Amino acid sequence: MLVTIEQTRTYTPLENFLDSLADKELTCYATDLLQQHGCGSMDELSHAVRRATEVCTSMHLPLNENFKPVYRSQNGEVVQDWRLSPMAYMLTVLNADSKSDLVARTQIEMVRRFLNTP
Fold first, then answer.
1. Which residue in 3, 31, 108, 111 is a FRET match for 17, CA 20 to 30 A apart?
2. Cβ(31)–Cβ(81) under 8 Å?
3. What is the pLDDT of residues 13-50, one digit of tens each?
4. What radius of gyration, in Å, describes the C-alpha atoms of the chain?
5. 81, exposed or middle or buried, with CB in 10 Å at 0-12, 13-18, 19+?
6. Percent of the chain with pLDDT over 90
7. Which pTM was predicted?
8. Is residue 71 over pLDDT 80?
9. How far is Cα of residue 27 from the mean position of the Cα atoms in its chain?
């Protein structure tokens, strides 16, 4: 008989408190981009979120403070979503398909602000 023992992680009250503080900053949902036509499909959205997490990872920003996978009910089905910090939401928008009017306008606005031009 083969027995697999999985080690479960126990969180301390302090870790739970810190997680709840991080969760408080996750005020956006990634699927909002679908409703705003920033992404055309869940696959495209998943790709944009993955690229945004790669940006945070390369800059050593804590993922748990910016991204949290969640599951939500949508049209009677359970679908994956992500709760995002405002920064993670903007990174997701910037990493979505630039053929989207919303994405292209956001990219141009970011460049204009960076260059401080009207």
1. 31
2. yes
3. 877 777 777 778 899 999 999 989 888 999 999 999 99
4. 17
5. buried
6. 63
7. 0.79
8. yes
9. 10
